[in-house]
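Sample entry (284 residues):
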Amino acid sequence: MELAVVQDVEEWINHQLISKLGDTLQSIYLVGSYPSGKVSLNRPDINWLLVWKGFVSGIDLWTLGEILTSTIEKFRQGVVIRPEFRPFKFSYPIERGKDECFVNITVVSGAATTEDFKKKNSFVPEYVFSGFKDSRKLIWGEDTLSNMEFAVSADEIKRGAMQKIMSHKIQLDRIPLVYHIKRDSDLIFSESITHGKNLLYFATELVMNNEELKASKHLALFHDNAELIQFIKERFPQIENEAQTIIDGKSNYPKWKQEPDKAKLIYLAASTMAAEMTKRAIAS
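Predicted structure, serialized as tokens:
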């Protein structure tokens, strides 16, 4: 996919967010790989963090849904827009067999103090907020995260490991049970690669020490596949083969998505990774 297409999607959504939700939003951020210029064009995803001025209402979420629907319709002739609120909700593609651009939006509520912000948004771990802060690009509003500090420690990551792993594993376990394995292999592939990718990234954090986490070494590894595999080989060799399979799936996403046998390959890699990470979390 051309980078210009991804940029068009980003600019359209930014405009819609500001014009239709600007009165209720405190901040609009781009986060993750896209604002740093490291987005994968094989499987592009754009990540937003939206900070509301107060609690998020049902009408706010409905309006956000209208924005995403309008985005799907606007770009459907050239690319399929896939809203993806991982790991809890995946969207059904409006068309199959076309280039896809994934849109992930994290919705949180603003607060007067850092501690109140953390309490109101406790469903997002502090190490995730830390990653958002490090990678953020402010699109509109206040830089809410600028003066906030988020604790990132090996102990904290271990304490939350089972919840994080299970949020992916529970859904992975159900993928072959709810889809038609032959007809829906592309959907199986897509969801499995998403779970696998996120589990792999969390695996690096799970085996890092405090100094490495403080230096955000895990963020650097996310953008260097060779270094990522070498790190896994040294620190978590039980998932080395599965990690390589997930990375190969990401690199070959458009082609492999159309090959039914690759859906099983990626699913089993992600599933095995989740099982090994569960064992590691229990033992730590």
